[in-house]
Amino acid sequence: EAQVTQNPRYLITVTGKKLTVTCSQNMNHEYMSWYRQDPGLGLRQIYYSMNVEVTDKGDVPEGYKVSRKEKRNFPLILESPSPNQTSLYFCASSFTSGSINEQFFGPGTRLTVL
Amino acid sequence: QKEVEQNSGPLSVPEGAIASLNCTYSDRVSQSFFWYRQYSGKSPELIMSIYSNGDKEDGRFTAQLNKASQYVSLLIRDSQPSDSATYLCAVIWGDDKIIFGKGTRLHILP
Fold first, then answer.
1. Can you tell me the mean pLDDT for A23-32?
2. How confident is the model at residue B4 (pLDDT cuts 50, 70, 90)?
3. pLDDT band at residue B95 under the 50/70/90 scheme
4. B34 chain-A contacts, CB cut-off 8 A
5. Chain A hits for B100, Cβ within 8 Å
């Protein structure tokens, strides 16, 4: 089954404790992206990657890191989480044919930072 | 700064009627436009994509694009309670820039 998976689905942590949210897709997509979704603010892009070893900042990259060592994986790293990073996070992937196409989203990770 | 604007709603529409959702964007260079549906607590899923001016129909859904006026709309005919969700408009600029609108909450009244 073609899908984007994220783990964990739910996470409660404390300020300053490093964490990684994994994202994996099995569709051989070039493009992958991380978003956070907050009430009233919509879906905002954190980082994206057009292909392996190519990453770029989105609209809200502060406090986050990513890497793209393999085509299928795109982990999101919070080195020192803070309460303002409490949010619902989505990973997405897409074919690119000169530009981004339809994005397929993972199920989401609900993160709470105390 | 590139922006995508949507009315947050809620937009209430009687069952069986036509729901009309609108989205405006700030940059004429935009190439690709997408409508996603998102149920509460779930991930967004693609409803329609449109790339050229005019209408594109898929079942009960019609996307309309007017690049000169910089708006894209989504019409849902014969609205069903299962259409109650938040609808997100997404606009692509260049090869790698994407911005989502904040979404319109649609409520279909039985």
1. 96
2. very high
3. confident
4. 102-103
5. 35, 42-45
Which helix (DSSP H) or strand (DSSP E) does residue A31 occupy? strand A31-38
Residue B23 to chain A, least CA–CA distance (Å): 14
The beta-carbon neighbor of A48 closest among B31, B96, B100 is B96
pLDDT score for A2: 86
Could A107 and B43 be called an inter-chain contact, meaning their C-beta atoms sit closer than 8 Å?
yes
Taking CA atoms, A101 is separated from A32, A88, B91, B94, B106, in Å, by 11, 23, 11, 12, 25
Judge whether B96 is closer than 8 Å to chain A, CB to CB. yes
Mean pLDDT of B45-72: 95
DSSP reduced 3-state for B83? helix
Give yes or no for residue A98 having a pLDDT over 70.
no
Please give the biggest Cα pair distance in chain A.
42
CB contact under 8 A, A42 and B102: yes
The C-alpha of B20 sits at a distance from chain A's nearest C-alpha, in angstroms, of 20
Q: Is A22 exposed, middle or buried (0-12, 13-18, 19+ CB in 10 A)?
A: middle
